[in-house]
Backbone:
């Protein structure tokens, strides 16, 4: 089976291509994302979109993309209800923390995250989440979403043993490198793809700073548009 390819689209946006040939977008904030590469603004195909929370810089283009591509959207229940109700998105799965929903052969489990979650109109969008995505060959990707570090990341490590942790490191709205280094220790994950940094001036954390604080972890220092193999 081929590897999973994870591509950073800037900020906390990613797409990954599974060994089975499915294409999944996480928090597709493409248009309006100052770091999204030009070539990624109009996705050619999408099987699933999965969302961590309702903030505009994470929901991004979800409504338009879901309608255009007819893909499944996996989102925390209140956010899912809003997408499926007011926004008219058709194929919505609505798990909540601890629950797993399967779409296109990929298992999406929502985990805890400590943050907030409202939409651009200030409406309550449920609680923010992280996502563990397990692809066909068992590789597990943990997208922490927007969060600070918290002790129960140890449970996420214990239960899911992610192969890679995709962590926010920008500081200000989420944890910075100092907390991310402890997050990696709690997770026990030996590979990290940092995100949610460098998008805006306030997001000052850098992969280099994380590398210095977590010398035992392989930290992928990638630019928007770059891919890593898992
Ligand atoms: Zn947020």
Residues:
């Amino acid at each position: 089976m081929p590897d999973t390819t994870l591509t950073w689209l800037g900020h906390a946006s990613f797409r990954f291509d599974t060994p089975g040939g499915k294409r999944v977008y996480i928090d597709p904030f493409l248009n309006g994302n100052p770091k999204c590469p030009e070539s990624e603004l109009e996705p050619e195909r999408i099987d699933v979109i999965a969302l961590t929370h309702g903030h505009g810089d994470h929901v991004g283009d979800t409504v338009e993309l879901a309608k255009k591509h007819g893909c499944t959207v996996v989102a925390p229940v209140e956010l899912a209800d809003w997408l499926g109700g007011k926004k008219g998105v058709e194929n919505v799965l609505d798990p909540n923390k601890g629950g797993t929903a399967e779409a296109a052969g990929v298992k999406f489990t929502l985990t805890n995250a400590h943050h907030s979650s409202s939409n651009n109109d200030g409406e309550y969008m449920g609680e923010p989440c992280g996502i563990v995505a397990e692809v066909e060959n068992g590789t597990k990707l943990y997208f922490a979403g927007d969060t600070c570090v918290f002790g129960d990341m140890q449970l996420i490590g214990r239960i899911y043993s992610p192969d890679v942790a995709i962590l926010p490191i920008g500081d200000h709205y989420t944890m910075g490198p100092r907390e991310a280094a402890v997050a990696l220790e709690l997770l026990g994950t030996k590979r990290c793809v940092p995100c949610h940094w460098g998008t805006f001036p306030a997001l000052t954390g850098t992969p280099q700073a994380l590398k210095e604080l977590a010398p035992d972890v392989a930290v992928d220092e990638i630019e928007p548009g770059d891919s890593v193999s898992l």
